[in-house]
Amino acid sequence: MHTVIIGAGEVGLNTARMLSHEGHDVVLVEMDEKLVEQASEELDALVIAGNGANPKLLNEAGIRNSDLLVAASNSDEVNIIACLAAKSQGVSRTVARIHNPDYYEAGEPFAREMLGIDFIIHTEQMAAQEIKEALLVPGAINVDSFAEDTIEVAEVILNEGSEAVGRALRDVRLPEGSLIVGVVRHGEALVPRGGTVLEKRDHVLLISGRRQISEAVGALATDTAPVRDVTIYGGGRIGLRLALSLEQAGMSVRVIERDEGRARYVASQLRKGFVLHDEGISRDFLLQEGVDRTDAFVAVTGDDRANLLAAMYARQLGARMTIAGISRGEFAPLADALGVDLTISPRMLAAEAILRFVRKGEVIDVALLASGAEMIELRVPERCKVAGRPLSEVGFPEGAIVGALLRKGKVIIPTGKEVLRPGDDAVVFTVEDAVEEVENLFST
């Protein structure tokens, strides 16, 4: 696949790195000379310096022969113009990252019909939604929805006191209609077998129907009390969206914002929650504001270091759950060491969205894990290798497993005897090395 990417920031660079690693032909366009130099050193791809909205430069990048355009610059206007230019040259699929809701709101057809954009990446909205879903399932640090929101995958950290710690998988008692499909241990993902013994601090991936997921999480987690009180550090695009959404869900919300003008604006938007203005953050300040009694502490300022430091303080003081937003990939490994339960990364959210367009087969949805593993939702087509055969005879790679199916509105947790039918939606857990084999199995 030939892909043109506009913008070499965290989202664009990470997308280019991901696609070139998978063998795709990538051209990256960037105006900033330092970012051009960095991308040229890191990537096995053609990097062009210039304005991504320039039709002549896009022609030089081979836009006429491209299968996909990803517009991920910091300028909404550049991204929109690039998509318009790509469509005029016959590019079949365009993806744009847009910040300003004035240009696009979910559910409005304007962007698709008038701007020629097939998919909008709104990382702030996506991040707020992902955090909210995790807070609504107590005991889980992350929740992803699949198959028209009928199937959910919850990530649970096994802490001391969990009944699953020290037990073989076959001996772990789970509610009917739920299954452990993956384990991430010391940063490495694996598909567990019946004899796999679960260990403390394992990240366990649990799949179930939406109505059963809380019960399934309760079988593994040690703290499943509902989240009622949330402290948000940062009243920016993510923080304000999250605060408004949590208010609608009936939670008590408190926002800490460093900029006085922004703090006043956030306060004017909230109905019940209150806003604290403080230029810095410290253990004493957090203790004074009762963070030791908060159910969840969410740090989503624009500063990765400040987010991780604040979340670490909140954890040490006694916050039940801590979440930090990070934009730079090198900070991700620090989170677990600092006791941060969940990190939210715009580049990861953008990569999940873009992967739908580059995976082989009819991919409905993708969720990426920090370990490199993926949850992929694929539709079973006619005449593919998995259709009409029991799963035990398909020859799935060791690093992959079908966790759940959606068939005519019904959620099925399959066994080896289950026969996949054309039209089924299959949710598959796969480690990074097995992704291509899984794609081939579901391709015609």
Question: What is the gist of this entry?
Answer:
The chain contains 15 helices and 22 strands. It is α/β, with parallel strands linked by helices and 444 residues long.
N-end to C-end Cα span: 17 Å
Helix content: 25-40%
State the helix count.
Answer: 15
Instruction: Identify the quaternary structure here.
Output: single chain
Which shape, going by the Cα principal axes?
Answer: globular
Mean pLDDT, to the nearest integer, reads: 89
> Which band does the percent of strand residues land in?
25-35%
Structural class: alpha/beta
Q: What is the radius of gyration? A: 22 Å
Q: Strand order, biggest sheet?
A: 3-2-1-4-5-6
Model description:
The chain is α/β, with parallel strands linked by helices and 444 residues long. Helix content is 31%, strand content 26%. It contains 15 helices and 22 strands. It has helices spanning 10-21, 33-42, 55-60, 76-88, 110-114, 123-135, 213-218, 237-248, 260-269, 283-288, 304-317, 332-337, 346-358, 391-394, 435-441; strands at 2-6, 25-30, 46-49, 68-71, 93-97, 119-121, 142-146, 151-157, 178-185, 188-190, 203-209, 229-233, 252-257, 274-277, 296-299, 321-325, 342-344, 362-368, 374-379, 400-407, 410-412, 425-430. It has a six-stranded parallel beta sheet with strand order 3-2-1-4-5-6, with helices on both faces. Helix 1 links the parallel strand 1 and strand 2. The longest helix is centred in the last third of the chain and has 14 residues, at 304-317. The protein is globular, with a radius of gyration of 22 Å. The mean pLDDT is 89.
